[in-house]
Specification:
heterodimer, A: 8 helices, B: alpha/beta, 10 strands
């Protein structure tokens, strides 16, 4: 038994889970800040961006160290590769949370506008999706990961709907253009967060099964996994 | 359809893989069918079935005592020399039963050469070591013999280092050079298969790398079967990997799959170092 490698992997697991928790929390705070137009919370999210970046770099360095020193194979190799990719997605989600917080800060400085109900629903759904994929990562739950892949299209549709709705409002109230543009940005950032959650789900399926399902359509249709690229 | 045929049929990348195109890649060179080896009452290899493709490098891995060296040595009947050793089942080389009583074992070992763990050159000159086999098998004039010696040493990536000292005693070479000389000695008799039993375990990393590079060079010209304890070496040099445990074959498949997504948990546990 390669005890040293297993210890290193355990340490890496703790690091990536800590980053997951941090990013999930940031998204929750950013959404709350936008929802309640709470500048203090929004500023808090912006201020904590460096911590996410530092954690991301630490995880990547740990992965590279394990690859160089232990040359892992099979399930260990898949774990390190999946963590490397999930790490990047988490960092991007962290960035998007900051962007949402910045939009919230902008909205705080503007006269109040009505936030579309659909955006709140989309924010809830996106947070749920993120939570679900991170839980699936903790529990190695392949079925949940596949559900996340399928749910992403619903969020894409919500984003399109909000985009059209806000476009209509801008045409009626051109003076609110800048504030409404931030609403569009928030919707776009939420949609991107869901995309990254889907990437994590796909990496999770690779980690568990060893099959690359990215770009495959069958996961949306409930069919079996894709044949590997040969 | 057996495992290898299935892989070859399903996997065009393996079938047309870059083995230099020097040997048809869709041919089974050694077919092992429900094959067992016994040392008196002790069964060292248990009903093993897998096919070894021609022109590729196949690695056999597994913990000590799993039967990997035994099965390697069975292919050119080296186990015949072990008292009390007997076999059951079928081991076909190019479709011919290796254990048929009519088989000329000397000819078999000419076609199926072997390289051992420790370099074992004869206490003779470098030239005579390589010329030893050809002299045994046929009468050749000095010119022809010199040609074979040179070609074998070139193929074994040793020529440039020894061309000016062919009459020196082989034992004056370094360990890595001695091992390449042993490979040249095997190549000199024109084998089709090279059996390698932990060929680098007695060598330093630099000499190991040279042997691994040599294996890559020889791939395609010969069918190579290597037993190694070094998992990373198996991953680096082989196209196919067989994992054996307690005398049985646990899994056989393309190396790139065995080392990224093995189908069997036991294989995963072994190659990731969780047991063995």
């Amino acid at each position: 038994m390669n005890i040293q490698l297993q210890k290193e992997i355990e340490k890496l697991k703790k690091q990536i889970l800590a980053l997951s928790a941090k990013v999930e929390n940031d998204v929750g705070m950013a959404v709350r800040a936008a929802d309640n137009l709470d500048a203090a919370i929004a500023q808090d999210v912006v201020n904590r961006e460096d911590e996410t970046n530092l954690r991301e770099v630490n995880v990547e360095e740990e992965c590279l160290k394990i690859l160089a020193l232990h040359q892992p194979v099979a399930s260990d190799l898949r774990y390190i590769v999946a963590v490397l990719k999930i790490n990047q997605d988490l960092e991007r989600i962290g960035d998007l949370a900051v962007h949402i917080a910045e939009s919230a800060l902008f909205l705080c400085r503007q006269p109040r506008i009505a936030i579309p109900v659909r955006l709140e629903q989309m924010a809830n759904k996106t947070q749920h999706l993120l939570q679900k994929v991170l839980d699936a990562f903790v529990n190695f739950d392949e079925a949940a990961a596949r559900e996340v892949c399928a749910d992403d299209s619903e969020i894409d549709a919500m984003h399109q709907e909000i985009f059209q709705q806000v476009k209509g409002i801008i045409m009626q109230n051109p003076r609110q253009f800048e504030a409404l543009l931030q609403i569009m940005h928030i919707s776009r950032h939420l949609e991107r967060i869901a995309d990254h959650a889907t990437n994590i789900a796909e990496d999770l399926i690779y980690l568990i099964e060893g099959r690359i399902v990215r770009h495959a359509t069958e996961i949306f249709q409930g069919k079996g996994p894709a044949e590997p690229n040969v | 359809m057996n495992t290898f045929d299935r892989i070859i049929a399903d996997r065009p990348d393996v079938r047309n893989g870059d083995n230099g195109g020097k040997m048809p890649a869709d041919r089974t060179h050694v077919a092992i069918n429900l094959f067992s080896v016994f040392y008196r009452a002790n069964q060292a290899v248990k009903d093993v079935t897998f096919n070894i493709p021609a022109g590729y490098v196949t690695a056999i891995i597994g913990p000590s005592g799993c039967g990997k060296s035994t099965i390697l040595r069975a292919i050119n009947r080296m186990n015949d020399l072990v008292p009390g050793c007997h076999v059951k089942g079928e081991l076909l080389f190019d479709g011919q039963d290796v254990y048929n009583p009519d088989v000329d074992v000397v000819m078999l070992r000419k076609r199926v050469g072997m390289v051992f763990q420790k370099p074992n050159p004869f206490p003779k000159s470098i030239f005579d070591n390589v010329a030893y086999g050809p002299r045994l098998h046929s009468r050749l004039n000095q010119g022809k013999l010199a040609e074979i010696v040179e070609r074998s040493l070139v193929d074994a990536a040793l020529w440039d280092e020894v061309k000016d000292r062919l009459e020196d005693n082989a034992l004056s070479l370094s360990g890595g050079q001695q091992q390449r000389l042993c490979i040249a000695r095997v190549l000199a008799v024109g084998p089709e298969i090279l059996l390698m039993d932990e060929p680098t375990s007695a060598l330093d990393p630099r000499a190991t790398l040279r042997i691994e590079n040599l294996i890559a060079e020889l791939r395609g010209k010969y069918t190579i079967i290597i037993v190694t304890h070094n998992m990373q070496q198996a991953a680096r040099v082989s196209d196919f990997t067989a994992f054996m445990y307690e005398g049985a074959l646990v899994e056989f498949g393309p190396t790139k799959e065995i080392f990224t997504k093995p189908g069997n948990k036991q294989t995963d546990d072994y190659i990731t170092g969780r047991f063995g």
